[in-house]
Amino acid sequence: MEVTNLREPKMANRVAAALRKMIVRGEIPEGTMLPPESELMERFGVSRPTLREAFRVLESEDLLHIRRGVRGGAQVTRPKRETLARFAGLILESEGVTVKDVYDARIALEVPMVVELAEEQDPKVIAQLEEIIERESQLEPGPQAVDQLTDFHAAIARLSNIKTLQIVSEMLHHIIEKANRSLQPTVGPRAEQAARRSAKTHRMILELIKAGEAEKAGELWRRHLEKAEEYLFAGSELGTIVELLE
Which positions carry the signal peptide feature in this UniProt record (predicted)? Predict the structure, then answer.
């Protein structure tokens, strides 16, 4: 079979792909300034406009930060979870996914993670959770308390051994963090009661993890997340995911 008119990928995309591979593999560490444009143009055999187009592609992916001015240049960065959450939010929105659906997904992700932590009983994990619990005990009511209480959930994912679930959970965590601030009261008796209840449950979960009570820990965490979801959505008008991330 004869194939005609087969075009190669745009040169800028090929340059971006080569640099991307080196960045994500760690061959070019975060914070590194790339060589001058003239040197890169010679290495890749491309023009300045082509190189700059490749830079724009990588900048849109949060893999480069372009610094302007005399001491400017292209600096290697790492993608932020906020960027991932925003792109994911656009996809979820286009698919008609609700904010509630995101919270349901959190239950599906976090419960097995809690079970895993209780089964492992890793002293280092327990120590980190104890530090978070100690900070929670000193909280004053307000927006900061909401963020701090949400940090316990983030730690559950961060301390899990399943890297892929960590990344997915962190992406959802950013969306949930925004929703917590937007949809629930942060001051007043109701907010104070909810904060105390959450902190108490976190302490109970920690004790179950320390005792290796995996099944009980998973069940309590499921009930906690379901109650938190009911509290969050009670009487609120649910906005779209994209609105939360704006």
Answer: none
Place of tokens 């990344």: 167
Residue 19 CA: distances (Å) to CA of 39, 47, 63, 173 = 14, 16, 9, 30
Asked if residue 137 and residue 15 are part of one domain, the reply reads no
User: For residue 20, what are its two tokens?
Assistant: 């991307």
Indicate whether 107 and 131 sit together in one domain.
Answer: yes
Is 4 domain-assigned?
Answer: no
**Whole-angstrom Cα Rg for the chain:** 23
**Alpha helix locations (H) across 95-188?**
99-120, 123-136, 143-158, 163-183
- Say whether pTM exceeds 0.90: no
What DSSP character marks residue 184? S
Backbone angles phi, psi at 174, to 5 degrees: -65, -40
Euclidean distance between CA atoms 9 and 57, whole angstroms: 14
Residues 6+ apart with CB under 8 A from 122: 159
160 in the same domain as 95: yes
pLDDT, tens digit, 9 for 90 and up, residues 15-43: 999 999 999 888 999 999 999 999 999 99
Collapsed DSSP state (helix, strand, coil) of residue 33 = strand
- Are 40 and 141 within one domain? no
Domain that residue 165 falls in: 82-245
pLDDT in tens, 54-70: 999 999 888 999 988 77
Based on the domain organization, do 142 and 40 belong to the same domain?
no
